[in-house]
């Protein structure tokens, strides 16, 4: 877990609101997502303080897509603050594609959190 400061908007006139938040390491999130992927069951809940969701692969074709199946996916976080997702778009056994949105994080420090 790391501590970061995030800009969440310009609500104070000319100054952004900046708050400290705890960010899980991407490696921790990958390990958790892989456990869910191996279980191959839908899951929604909280992981390390962030809303998260896993959807298993489906043989159904996605709407308006050329894909022949709906890939498994995992997402965690809040768009615009910190967000990470994985998608097994090349199939269940292939490595997932990853997307990380941390552009609003101002500073990231690795700090031990209180137990």
Give short descriptive properties of this protein.
single chain; 115 residues; five-stranded antiparallel beta sheet; three-stranded antiparallel beta sheet; 8 strands; 39% strand
Describe it for me?
With about 120 residues, this protein is mainly beta. It has a domain at about 25-105. About 10% of the residues lie in helices and about 40% in strands. Strand 5 (about 75-80) and strand 6 form a beta hairpin. The radius of gyration is 17 Å and the shape is globular. The model has no long low-confidence stretch (mean pLDDT about 85).
Q: Summarize the amount of helix as a percent range.
A: 10-25%
Report the order of strands and helices.
Answer: EEHEEEEEE
- Detail the poorly predicted runs: none
**How many whole angstroms does the radius of gyration measure?**
17 Å
Averaged pLDDT: 86
Distinct helical segment count: 1
* Biggest sheet details: 5 strands, antiparallel
Assembly type: single chain
State the separation between the terminal residues, measured CA to CA.
Answer: 12 Å
Name the beta content range. 35-45%
Q: Indicate the overall shape.
A: globular
* Major sheet: arrangement of strands: 3-4-5-6-7
DSSP summary, beta strand count? 8
Provide the structure class.
mainly beta
